[in-house]
Specification:
481 residues; alpha+beta; Hypothetical protein af1432; Beta-Lactamase; six-stranded antiparallel β-sheet; 6 strands; 60% helix; globular
């Protein structure tokens, strides 16, 4: 039985010393090279020539139509650097080394899926950077490719613990993040951050992991490329993809149709890149851009529109009313409230955003609905104490339930800020303060932007009622505590 690894230090030691030392060494050597220095060409050749297999594979990729459309024969690394460029050879070397290290054994399903998404993300990010950051595309590609290197390394080298986690994640009731912590003793994000630091993967990769540098254009390209690759798994016509296409259009100053065409073309290119790098087994895991398939997805989404269910609505309201006097815990109260609003009232996306980080911002605490899971990590809005910088803060400070998008609330449109539109999209929504007595908890948010249908008076009445019932439950819990 293999020795069990627990905690960040143990996993770093295992990956660097037992499982991936060759990959770590090559990545570190490649990242240290500077294209500005003439000697770096010789250094790059020296790094690759240490491994004859790696050298031959880099030359094979360099001779492919994708990198060498003129088909001029490349027989040496030095010639490859001259013809296709230092950065391209460095990128090819790193990609081939990553594939060989992780796919050389019998790759498990989770690894193949994640590596396919990583290549897809890398191509999307590089093509975004190509319009905003000429000369930095390859650096962005590498940062996006290795954006989830901690999880990739685990699924490639986790052994029995990877089997254990895979079995856990198949259980519907399991929270993925908690399952990872239980099995590894560290989150995938922490493991990635440490590998980025240990392997010296560069400033862009490091900043992208921090999550606090989205103003940096290169980091934005990496983040957007990664999110597009994830949203594509929900369908090219999904709400999550629509929101990202809208972001891309604004970022590049193009129409949404043009942005979608770029996204689809990048997905096709990702398939070509994976094949070129010798990872054709990943191609089927990158979502197809076939027009007939996209149309079928759109039709399926239209058929499956969420409908209100009066039985669920009434039962959830009754349960909340009983919880005011019963000893229900906070989690059950919140789950019941969101179920009533989502499944009962037919509100397609629902979120509880709580005050966090010493009440300086709103963070997603509970979500329900298609495409909302990304809010759990990515949603963050400032919560100013002395002024309403957005409608979330306004609703909480004024203790007011608001139906945005109707004439009565037009005067508040300026409080729907650009970050809100980027995270939530555009259109009607409900928002209301959630209080536990006089204590501010956060706000409830709901919309029907999956289908684009208008909200109704009946839904707003249900939204107000559930906000009040939830607040009463939380007040009762706080009194008992």
């Amino acid at each position: 039985m293999e020795q069990r690894s627990t905690g960040l230090r143990a996993w770093m030691d295992r990956l660097n010393e037992a499982e991936l030392p060759a990959l770590a060494a090559v990545i570190q050597d490649l990242q240290r090279l500077s294209e500005a220095d003439k000697s770096s060409v010789q250094q790059l050749a020296a790094v690759l020539l240490r491994d004859a297999t790696l050298t031959s594979k880099v030359l094979r990729v360099g001779n492919s139509v994708y990198y060498n459309p003129s088909q001029e024969s490349i027989r040496t690394i030095s010639r490859a650097i001259v013809l296709i460029g230092f950065d391209s050879v460095r990128l090819i070397s790193l990609s081939v080394c990553l594939i060989d290290s992780l796919l050389s054994k019998s790759p498990r399903e989770q690894l193949r899926g994640l590596l396919a998404r990583s290549f897809h993300a890398a191509v999307q990010a590089r093509n975004i950077a190509g319009q905003r950051l000429p000369g930095r595309q390859e650096e962005v590609f590498i940062a996006a490719l290795l954006h989830q290197i901690g999880e990739l390394a685990f699924w490639g080298c986790g052994g029995e613990q990877a089997d254990e986690l895979a079995a856990l994640l198949e259980q519907a009731s399991v929270q993925p993040g908690q399952a990872v912590l239980d099995v590894l003793g560290v989150s995938f994000r922490q493991l990635t951050q440490e590998l980025v630091k240990s392997w010296n993967l560069g400033d862009i990769a490091s900043l992208a992991q921090s999550g606090a540098a989205q103003s940096d254009p290169a980091v934005r390209a990496v983040t957007l490329g990664t999110r597009i690759s994830e949203a594509a798994l929900q369908g090219w016509s999904s709400p999550a993809m629509a929101a990202l296409v809208e972001q891309l259009a604004r970022l590049l100053g193009i129409s949404e149709d043009a942005a979608l065409q770029q996204v689809l073309a990048s997905a096709d290119e990702a398939v070509e890149v994976a094949t070129t790098f010798g990872a054709s087994k990943l191609c089927d895991l990158i979502p197809s851009t076939d027009p007939e398939l996209i149309q079928a997805q759109r039709q399926a989404q239209t058929v499956e529109l969420l409908q209100p269910d009066l039985t669920i609505l009434q039962q959830a309201a009754q349960d909340l009313a009983l919880m005011v006097s019963d000893r229900a815990d906070v989690g059950l109260v919140l789950d019941t409230a969101l179920k009533g609003l989502h499944q009962g009232a037919g509100l397609e996306r629902v979120m509880l955003a709580v005050l966090a980080e010493q009440q300086s911002c709103f963070r997603a605490k509970r979500v329900a609905g298609e495409g909302t899971q990304q809010w759990m990590e990515g949603f963050r809005l400032p919560a100013a104490q002395d002024s309403e910088v957005n409608v979330f803060g306004y609703a909480l400070r004024h203790r007011e339930a608001i139906w945005m998008g109707v004439p009565a609330s037009y005067n508040l449109n300026e409080l729907v800020t650009l970050p809100m539109r980027q995270m939530l999209g555009q259109g009607m929504f409900f928002i209301a303060p959630l209080m536990a007595g006089k204590r501010e908890i956060g706000v409830l948010y709901a919309d029907c932007r999956v289908s684009g249908r208008p909200l109704t008076q009946e839904q707003f009445a249900a939204f107000q009622r559930f906000t009040q019932l939830t607040g009463r439950c939380l007040e009762a819990i706080s009194r008992r505590a």
